[in-house]
Amino acid sequence: MGKEKESKPTSITDLAKQLGLSVSGVSRALNNDPRISAATKQRVQTLARQLNYQPNHLAAGLRKGKSKLLGVIVPYIDGRFFAVVIKGIELAASQAGFNVIICQSNEDVAHERQNIETLLSAQVEGILVSLSRTTHDFAHFEKVQQRGVPLVFFDRILLGTEVNAVLLDDYAGGFLSTEHLIEQGCRRIGHFAGPQHLGIYKHRRQGYLDALQKHGLPVAEELIVYCDTMTVETGRQAMQQLLPARPDAIFSSSDAAVAGALQVLEEQGSRVPEDVALTGFSNEMFTSLTKPRLTSVDQRCEQMGEAAVRLFLQLRQERGNAPPQHVVLEPELRVRASSLRT
Fold it and tell me: What is the pTM of this model?
């Protein structure tokens, strides 16, 4: 037996043919236009129900030049941070009447370029993006700007670019974490630093350096490990590299990396926080599940998503007539057992 043909969705043209009306007349009837008589509206709506007619809101929007679609590009979707940012984006976008298309770059700039092409082809009205770790230039975003599509970056931006962005005060987060460790009596504080071409990691490192300087502690380069990725495995490698330098604390630019450090310290028989105190960054869900629970910087994820949508709506209203602006959110240090010595 051959496959049965799937029935084609009923179109507004089908309704018009069956009723002997014009397409525009049927459209007006479905939209309760006062120029259409009550009897005609009744006929149209009855047939539409019988044939299970579903209006194509996207096509209608595109005819009016408004798709009501908002594109979002994130490096990855696993983990708490980007999942909760997207939650904030979808909530604010829905309240503004927008649907959201979500793309992942998987930390790959080539994939990020494809995401841009996909979203532009879908005729989104705006794009919100957090850069991949391997993005080093702005070239593929110029096409977005040339088309007049509002573009808002969040969390990650390239240093030296003038863009509209919603950011955490990463410097303050790095400073808070390091100063907290100093207040706990730590004096040889190591740092896991992420890729320095991305502002978030450069600013976190600078906060660390300035907190040491404020409290009269020397900067020991042997206590800083630069990581291309911020994963459990790179955290393990960084901790193993630092062990001979005998740090008494670690401020990590990511929670995943500090979780790797915790594993190594447990394997070495070191006590946390008595021998080595630990702090991370992002307040991932697992930080409250480890033993000991991990101190971390909360990044205001949901507020970041909501603020990115608000900035997009503002840009859409202004139609590119305002200079680029940054919305900066304040971090909060969530202090837990991994860093508490006093």
Answer: 0.77
